Amino acid sequence: MTDLQHGQFRAAPAWLRSPVGLGRAAVAGLGLVIATDLVAVWADYGMYDLWADYADGTYDAVLDGRASRVERLYSWTGMAQTAALIASVVLFLCWFHRVRVNAEVFSPFGHSKKRGWAIGGWFVPIIHLWYPRRITLDIWDASSPWAAPRPHGLVNAWWTLWVISLIAGRASFTQYKQSKTPKEIQDAVQSVLITDVLDIAAAALAIAVVLRLTRMQHEKALQGPAPVPA
Prior knowledge:
- It is a single chain.
- By secondary structure, the chain is mainly α.
- The chain has one domain.
- Helix content is 73%, strand content 0%.
- The protein contains 6 helices and no strands.
- α2 packs across α4 and α2 runs parallel beside α6.
- The longest helix is centred in the middle third of the chain and has 46 residues.
- It is elongated.
- Keywords: Membrane, Transmembrane, Transmembrane helix.
- It comes from Streptomyces cupreus.
- This is DUF4328 domain-containing protein.
C-alpha cells in the first residue's frame, strides 16, 4: 500500500545545494529593510517634532504647511517599509527553507519539526513565537562543524530582539490608531520611532545569523562526510 493510500505523504529527498546565492539575496532584503527603517526614523522624528508643537498650542500657516510635508513623508516611508518587508520575507524564507533542507542532509534525525514548518511556522499565530527559533537551532546544530558544535548565543539574541520588536510594533500601531489629542499622537509617534530602532537592530542580527549559518553550511559541505571514528 502506498503512502498516499495510508493518508500520508513522504517528504521529498533532501539534496545538498549551496545556500550562498540565497543567503546573499536574504542579506540584501534585510539590508533594504534597514535602509527603509532608517528613513522611517527620520520621518518619525519629524512627525514627533511636529506634534510636539501642536501639543504646545502652536497653530499657524507655517506649521500647517510643514505638517503637510511631514505627513506625506511619513506616509511614503510607511509604504516603503511595507514593500521592503514583503520582499525581505520572501527572500529570507527561500534561504531559510534551503538551509533547513541542507541541514537534513547533514543530520537526518536531528530535527524536532518537519520540513514544512520552516515556512508555515512563521505564519501560524502563537506558534510563530517559538517554532522558527527551534527550527533555526536545529539547523544551527546540524550545520556546526562535526567536532565543534557552535553556541546558540547569536540565534537567541536575534530571536529575543525580533520578538520584542514584533510585540512593540503591534503595541505602537494600536496606540497610534487610538490616539486623538496632539499629546497622545506625539507619544504614539515616539513609540513608533522606538519600534523602528528595534527593527533595525533585529534586522542587523538577522543578517549576522544568515551570514554565519550560510558560511557554516558552505564550509561543512566542503569538509565532506563526517569522519569515521577509529
